[in-house]
Write a structure and sequence with these properties.
The protein has 115 residues and is an alpha+beta fold. The chain has 2 helices and 6 strands, in the order E-H-E-E-E-E-H-E. Strand 2 and strand 3 form a beta hairpin. The longest helix is centred in the last third of the chain and has 15 residues. The radius of gyration is 14 Å and the shape is globular.
């Protein structure tokens, strides 16, 4: 199973963050399948890649450790694909979602790290 993780600390009002994250996920053709407010799960829509390559994205918004304007977002992107190549579909999706988080103009990126 391929699995890539990262975290991002962004400066944005907490009440806007959830909707901005949803917009990023939807712009990547990911369908929100679970939303508890501080945890989101999304799945890639079928049809573009074989079923084992479809990615699942989990986003945890760390409200408990958030300051007034800085909030940590933990990101996990995974699929059933064996990561036999370093540039597999799961890695590509991780890079796309991460880049959209990093370059989003609705917040200021304070810190990030992806694996």
């Amino acid at each position: 199973m391929a699995r890539y993780t990262g975290f991002f600390i962004v400066a944005v009002p907490i009440e806007r963050l959830r909707q901005l994250v949803i917009e990023i996920l939807q712009s990547c053709n990911l369908d929100i399948i679970y939303d508890s407010g501080d945890y989101l799960m999304a799945r890639e829509l079928p049809g573009m890649v074989p079923l084992p390559k479809l990615v699942t994205v989990e986003v945890l918004i760390e409200k408990s450790s958030a300051s007034q304007l800085q909030i940590r977002i933990d990101l996990v992107i995974k699929n059933e694909e064996l990561p036999l190549q370093t540039h597999n579909h799961c890695r590509q999706m991780f890079e796309v979602v991460s880049e959209l988080i990093i370059t989003n103009r609705q917040w200021q990126l304070v810190e990030s790290m992806g694996i």
